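Bug report

Summary: structure tokens for 3-phenylpropionic acid transporter differ between web form and batch submission.
Environment: batch mode, default settings.
Steps: 1) Submit the sequence below via batch. 2) Compare with the web form result.

Sequence submitted:
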Amino acid sequence: MNKQRWLSQSFFTFFFTWGIFIPYWTGWLVDAKQLTVSQASIIMGCGLLARAVSNLFIFPSLSKYMHNKQLMTLLTTGALIIVLLYIPSSTFAFLLIVTVLFSMVYPAIQSVIESGAAILVQQGHIHYGKSRSYGSLGFIVAVLIISMLTGVFGDTIIFWSMVVGLIGILLMQQLETPQELLVVPTKEQRAKSLSMKKLWAYKSLLIVLLVVILLQGSHASYYNYAYIYLGDLHVNPFYMGMILNIAVICEILYFMKADTLFKGWRSSSLLLLAASGSSVRWLLIYLFPNVWVFIASQTLHALSFALAHFAFINYISKNLPKEQIPNAQGLYSALAMGLSTAILTFLGGYLYEITPGLAFLAMLICTIPAIGLILLTRTKYQY
């Protein structure tokens, strides 16, 4: 079978649903379930914390007893069942419970795919960036399709599109899966990865993990306030989606060329470039509150997000044994993609009310220390 194509399809189908969940789910809760914005924000915030807990404990534990395909089928089936519980739910309490449950199961699907990708890169000679670009493409396609469908059918189409997307992921599991991902960990392998404490033996991993936690967390203000910021710059709402999609398009272009463009680069060099690009990005938005500068800064998403993400996957593929990859991926998903963003969202929101640009400038408290940490450790730990 074509492993590259299989991985590309897996990324596309998941990120298509991610393109429904991330931009539209809060709005769906407000419009379809008649919640206030603050109530929906509390629910989604609790969901983000549940996601961190799930990726930190549940996903790594399950991966010790199930192979990739079994885990994907279990999580996707669980997510599909839970999402249907939204139909009878109408009160704040029930919607909170359903969202927490959904957030503990659904985002973990991404961790399974990313772990599988790292294993295929390690054992199957797969180009990660090439396949990951299809994930970004799926995100863009979903955003564009849902924006059109909501104009015709209203916000209820958001929910049913998620249901259809999850069914699509489930159907993907009926296809042939690479043999490398059909191996159930042995008792000996489970013993090797019984605890995440085993990861601490890899000293450079702690540094790389801390750097990506800082770099991915620095996107908190962008993820939460970029749309509002463009409104403050008096941008026509018709163009906002196009402007925000520039970042994802640059992300796609980067992932398509990452495997060859940075072939032979050390992980520390990749992370240093990512941290530098991220610092420039947030500084530009603060210094020049102008829509054209904001558009130009969108191109730096290829460095601030995509390069940092690629560097981490590249690092664990080259430096960790197969049985430790799910543990590392769980930590990354929980801390870098969840918890750090949640914490910095509170800081960004406070500063945005003072001056919008401050919310972006504050993200330098992550990127500058990341640069310093890399420069201080890259020679000693040779990562």
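Above is the batch result. After comparison, the two runs are identical; trailing whitespace caused the diff. The two ends are 33 Å apart (CA to CA). The CA atoms of residues 74 and 347 lie 36 Å apart.
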